[in-house]
Request: fold
Amino acid sequence: MVPLLALALLAIPPTTAVSPLHPRIFVRHDAAVVGRGLRLYALRDRLGDPAYAAWRREPSGKGAAAILERAARYLEDGSAAQLEPVRTFLLSNTFSYARHDVGGFLAGAEMATAFDWIYAGLSDADRAAAMANIVTTADSSASFLRRGQPDINHNYTYMALNTVAVCGLVLKGEAQPYNQKAEEYLALAREFIEGPGRVLDTWNARQGAWAEGSHYTFHETVRHLVMMFQAYRTASDIDYFTRVEKRYGDFLAKAGRFLVASTRPDLTFERIGDCSSNRSLANITVPLTVEALASGLNNAAEAARLRSFAQALREAYGPNALNSSFDWGMRIFLEPRAPRKPVYTTLPLAMRLGEGTYEHIMFRNGWTPDSTLITILAGDHFTDHQHFDKGQFLIYRRGGLAVDSGVYDQMYKPDGHWNEYASRTLAHNCLLVYDPDQTFPKGCTNDGGQNVLRGKQHHGDWSTYLAHYKKEGLDTAEVLAYDYDERNQYGYLRCNLAGAYSSKVSYYDRQFVYLPAPDFLVVFDRISAARADFAKRWLLHFQDQPDAQRRDSGASLTTLKRRGQLNLGGRTATYDGALFVHTLLPAEHAVTVVGGPGHEFFNPFTGVNYPPSKPGLVAEVREPGAWRMEVAPTRPSADDQFLHALQMADGSVAQPVDARLLADTGNRVVGVHFLARPENQIVLFARRQNGGPVELPVTYEISSPDAARHLLVELPPRARVVIEVNGKALARTTVDPQGVLNFRDRARGARKIIIRAAR
Reply:
């Protein structure tokens, strides 16, 4: 866990200076001297610019978001036809969290911004009536922040905070009691944004990575954070973009990278955590968020990458890129002639995001539509929108190959799909350990999975979270080693997952080695259970039906061929990837394929299938999974090791590269020998149940007509070693700080490799 940095509020004035002129939110009055950003005349000039012509559609819906689009049109051309529906809406509606749930949080900022934009067209009486409704709506969000137990890691806090801040910025300077309300709102917002352990400190500690699934992370939380900072930037003397860059680890630029890293090669989001079908897509509001973030960043390279990414989204989604109610945002924040180089595809092919906190790991072998993306979750628990899926990994190549199963449906409902399946370990590519006596929270049956952590969303600041996360079991996973070498083409991750499970597990680590050039992934699990009779099952979920076969070597091969298409609106993604899964350990194991009608969401321990409440929720775009493979040891043991060698390929590939179990003569290492051509690939781990470092020397033998590349992990970090092949010294080298040794041998045929400590 990254410790909270002691960030003093350096020279921050006690009050916020706000422009006395309307408009002031996102667009500044031409005569404004306070604030920074687009001026009104520049917005109006854009009416004749062809680059903005596509972003002036008839808004869909009748809610506050659609009203905001109409207010923007009045701001642009003074149309009475646009003014009247906005005026009527503001004079006729109030919203609250109690009556409208999330909509009650969202409406306040939208109403206040619309009021700011049509201010010149309202009479004094209309202004007073509209402000009274805005205050009623904003008070609900303010009450939530003061007394509703807001959590610094939860999206509700950011939606409510955005409303309070924007309403304060809009009402500042108005006649009483509205100016007083504005002062209260702005003081509350400053407390939440700048106070010790609050928004700035929390996002700095989490390095821009968020954990609420693609449904809430990008469509809600990041969007409202960025838009709130843009409102302050244009309306006041506070520029949070600059402050974040200089004092808070530039977490906004990192949040932009996290957004890109969470997007698959088909330009849809990784299905992580709570995620409904339409929120699997990177459209609706996302291009607006990306453009608004890019326009606020001072780092020109990061801004250019984000703009190139937003352009890619617009091209992929075509007319579906943005909900028409948010067209106003593109007319304000889109800068069509701003630099788009370096492009987003210049970002690293491996990224560790939220280091020490969320731990979202991305490995890619390219940025093209045909590239592979592997995503791994290996960090802590923050909110109920996360799932109990620490150690989960997803694989995309020309379609989701290893998928996140289940859908977002009826949160907390006992015996429901979300409560019993979608949020549980059973629905993820994780390991189950079934203790029949384990007690789960009321309404949750035993799935053999990780601890069910509910009711923990009460951390008002980052310091409180840090004080509670160990005793509340939120320290669910820890990265023990991470390494990526682009020149030598490998990625490595080792994580400790024991904290995610109950006392039924005394030790559990999971390791990943990704070889991007041949597109091989090795997953190695070592687990020790409290009792030998606790059943273990290694899971991998698929959208399509796999084929499992036992091989003569005792290993098993499971083959998946992905099929389908997804029309995004501007581009159609064709899904025709292949995944080959070699099960090499346990030596004695059974592979079972589970799925199909009546078993898509099946708990093998209760014998119950948990389908969603509505069949329509299981849309193909969500890739909710209908099949899985389960690997179980056939001989009971407290200690088990699972070794899987995976190959990703195009669907035209009929047979995989042969993958064989490889162990050394001293039983110190174990791993995989891929008989790939023109170069074999060797990946070896420590055989000892509690992990490395491996005791040297290590001796092992291979036989192949081809050269080989060797990757050993869990060696003594920074050790000086000598590598011998068939008795001849190949190299004297140093193990890297993460315990990884990488080398090539050009020998042919049978050879003995010895790695010994250098004298």
Observations:
- The first strand starts at residue 350 and ends at 353.
- The first helix runs from residue 40 to 45.
- The chain has three domains: 40-346, 350-654, 657-759.
- The domain at 657-759 is CATH 2.60.40.2750 (Immunoglobulin-like).
